[in-house]
Amino acid sequence: MRSFRTWSGYHTTIPARWATPGSEAEIAALLREADRAGRRVKVIGSGHSWSDIALPDDVCVDLRRMRRVLAIDAAARTIRVQAGIRLEEITDALDRVGMALPILGSIAKQTIAGAIATGTHGSSLRHGNLASLVVAMRLVTPRGEIVELGPEHPWLPAARVSLGALGIVTEVTLSTTPAFRLEESLETRPIERVARELRTIAQSAEYVKIWWLPTQGDALIFRYARTPLRAVARPLARFVDEKIVNQTLFELALRAAGRYPSLTRHVNSIVMGAYFRAGTRVDRSDRCFNLAMPPIHRETELALELDDAGALLSEVAGAIHEDGLVVNFPCEVRFVAGDDAWMSPAYGRDTCQIGFYQAESPHLAKYFARVEEIGARYDARPHWGKEFSTPGERVRAAYPMAPAFLALRRELDPRGTVQNRFLLRVLGPIDRAEAMAAE
Ligand SMILES: Cc1cc2nc3c(=O)[nH]c(=O)nc-3n(C[C@H](O)[C@H](O)[C@H](O)COP(=O)(O)OP(=O)(O)OC[C@H]3O[C@@H](n4cnc5c(N)ncnc54)[C@H](O)[C@@H]3O)c2cc1C
């Protein structure tokens, strides 16, 4: 029996059946059969979500055999790929022809379909999340119909960030840009000033993000600007950061601090010394966006109106202090241009997405609960791929287009064929029978 395990190891399940279709026609047949037989089908990406959004209850569909680049159109500046391809495979294919994605998150191990389904984002007020790059896609509906969603198709804004609730995406076409290099520069600034000056900081470069270790007074501002300077690739440094520092030394230190929280302050000081230093470097854009893989930890994240984010950050800082919470991982402040994808955390507003991270520790549950409690007062939306326990009605209330999305889901999936426990909890039951079963 094969098990599905999320990257953090927090969620594991053994699906009743594991399917690895190699074509859209196979997916359509599988869904038609499941829909007739009343089975539940969940398509997975690479399992990099912290939430249980990708957890299959019954049949698991794994698109590892559907990960090809189908076409690169240099004139239109687009790339068409199969849905199971990893982001890093897309960036490498684009780089070979002098092209790039204009934005990326901090890793590129995710599948394109998984990344867009949760609103995965990088950090820039001039660019939206990855889903905002989608100009077309192909979708197999839960009843097995194949639909081409072109740029003008009315379902495209729903399908860009779909939570996997509308069917199985088989192909995605993304807009791209000519390849570019970035110069990274770092600055430390007291967190109180950062909270007050957030909008100005967000607008101070094309790409800006902020890290802050809640036990420390200073935050670190990362700025990235396009540059004609030559890239200096650092494969050895990346290897050392990933395998030796992050996944061995930092991981061991975090485990020790998880058991003995009083050690956390010392671990944090070492992290500050190692990472929170001013400096500069030049590299290929994707190598600047992506970081060495971090040690295992858990994440929750709030997406809120940019102008509210400073106040929320100050409140969280106050709560950490008042409650004596020991936080062992940096908090990350990022920016995302507003978009029109119905269920995107950045729908309709320029957004600040603040990630609160923690390796296992006795303080984790209380920390995340406090963050969510404060976020609720700021009309914050959760990141679909990160942990949250806000009740479904409250989550849906933060999305103006949720009623339209739910209506489309009911039309496409009347029998709940692609429903799982996460979707039931967050989007609610599809019909009365499901509502009664959930009670
Ligand atoms: C170390 C690490 C770093 C991260 N960095 C960032 C970051 O910088 N920014 C950010 O925003 N997030 C980040 N994330 C979160 C991550 O990007 C998202 O959770 C993303 O959705 C994971 O993609 P996946 O391929 O693993 O999808 P999964 O987690 O496997 O699935 C996510 C959802 O996508 C759906 N899905 C997958 N394939 C399809 C398909 N073909 N058709 C329809 N639905 C589909 C699934 O059903 C599920 O609902 C990070 C996660 C980790 C572990």
Automatic annotation (TrEMBL):
SUPFAM superfamilies: FAD-binding/transporter-associated domain-like. Gene3D superfamilies: 3.30.465.10, 3.30.70.2520, Uridine Diphospho-n-acetylenolpyruvylglucosamine Reductase, domain 2, Vanillyl-alcohol Oxidase, Chain A, domain 4. It holds the Pfam family FAD_binding_4. One of its GO terms (molecular function) is D-arabinono-1,4-lactone oxidase activity. It comes from the Bacteria. Residues 11-179 form the FAD-binding PCMH-type domain. Keywords: Ascorbate biosynthesis, FAD, Flavoprotein, Oxidoreductase. One of its GO terms (biological process) is L-ascorbic acid biosynthetic process. One of its GO terms (cellular component) is membrane. Signal peptide: none annotated. Transmembrane segments: none annotated. Pathway: Cofactor biosynthesis; L-ascorbate biosynthesis. Belongs to the oxygen-dependent FAD-linked oxidoreductase family. PANTHER family: D-ARABINONO-1,4-LACTONE OXIDASE (PTHR43762:SF1), L-GULONOLACTONE OXIDASE (PTHR43762). This is FAD-dependent oxidoreductase. It comes from Sandaracinus amylolyticus.
